């Protein structure tokens, strides 16, 4: 059995203490750190920061350390968050098993930064497209057959009625009068709870299915290729609601 050592600290990648001043066998300590890291990666879609473990342990004769904060090793991967510059909102590197490619902000009335929006793509699905240039990437972004998650983080408080009305207003003219009942379905996916600053919503598009996670964590879905195609046009079309977001996504896809 491994000798007991005094754990002076276990910290996150941002120096937040996780556990201090305890004694445990070093083998259990490493197991715990491994499980914590795996858990953080598994739950990365719900975090605004990414984590890795830093451990310091001592005994009477020596001091050893295992820290993802120290470079030089090939075994530890730091998944740093990405900042939307105008709002300061952070996006994790991974979301729903997809990879961050870009973010931007939704501006209303010319100056009100309503929410930050980020896009996550499947690197495998985009592998053939990413080398074909911006025009081909933009065309692929408009095609709901290419899986992606659109993650929205509120930059300010907003009533749920105004939020859903803005989404419906953007979708409606893009649907050509088809499947209009899906707009009411979308409204019903959002509980009657006003959005606060930092509230998060996720829209994952796969073909004719949009999987939606609302601000309180409830999940539902809409089945309609018309709805999904319109949603793609809202965020990646010629008249995108955030041109800065669209531009960053096109650049990010090329780097996948």
Explain the layout of strands and helices:
Blueprint: E1 4-11, E2 17-19, E3 22-25, H1 26-42, E4 54-58, E5 63-67, E6 82-83, E7 90-91, E8 94-95, E9 98-108, E10 112-121, H2 134-141, E11 148-154, H3 160-171, H4 181-188, E12 200-206, E13 209-213, E14 219-223, H5 225-236, H6 243-254
Antiparallel strand pairs: 1-2, 1-3, 1-4, 4-5, 6-7, 8-9, 9-10, 10-11, 11-12, 12-13, 13-14
> What's the story with the biggest beta sheet?
7 strands, antiparallel
Give me the number of helical elements.
6
SSE pattern, N- to C-terminal = EEEHEEEEEEEHEHHEEEHH
Residue stretches low in confidence (pLDDT < 50, at least 5 long) are: 1-76
Percentage of residues in strands? 25-35%
Structural class: alpha+beta
**Percent range of helical residues:** 25-40%
Overall pLDDT score: 79
How is the largest sheet built, in terms of strand order? 8-9-10-11-12-13-14
Based on CA atoms alone, the radius of gyration comes out at 22 Å
């Amino acid at each position: 059995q491994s000798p007991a050592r005094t754990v002076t600290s276990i910290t996150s990648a941002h120096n937040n203490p996780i556990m201090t001043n305890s004694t445990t066998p070093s083998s259990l300590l490493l197991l715990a750190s491994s499980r914590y890291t795996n858990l953080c990666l598994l739950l990365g879609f719900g975090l605004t920061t990414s984590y890795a473990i830093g451990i310091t342990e001592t005994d009477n004769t020596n001091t050893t350390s295992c820290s993802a904060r120290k470079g030089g090793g090939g075994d530890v991967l730091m998944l740093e968050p990405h900042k939307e510059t105008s709002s300061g909102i952070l996006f994790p590197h991974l979301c729903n098993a997809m990879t961050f490619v870009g973010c931007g902000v939704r501006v209303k009335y010319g100056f009100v930064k309503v929410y930050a929006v980020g896009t996550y793509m499947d690197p495998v699905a985009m592998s053939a497209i990413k080398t074909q240039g911006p025009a081909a990437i933009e065309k692929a972004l408009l095609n709901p057959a290419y899986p992606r998650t659109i993650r929205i983080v509120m930059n300010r408080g907003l009533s749920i009625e105004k939020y859903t009305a803005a989404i419906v207003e953007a979708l409606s003219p893009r649907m050509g009068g088809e499947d209009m009942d899906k707009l009411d379905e979308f409204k019903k996916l959002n509980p009657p709870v006003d959005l606060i600053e930092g509230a998060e919503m996720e829209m994952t598009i796969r073909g004719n299915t949009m999987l939606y996670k609302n601000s309180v964590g409830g999940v539902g879905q809409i089945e309609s290729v018309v709805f999904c195609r319109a949603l793609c046009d809202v965020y990646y079309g010629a008249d995108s609601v955030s041109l800065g977001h669209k531009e960053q996504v096109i650049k990010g896809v090329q780097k996948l």
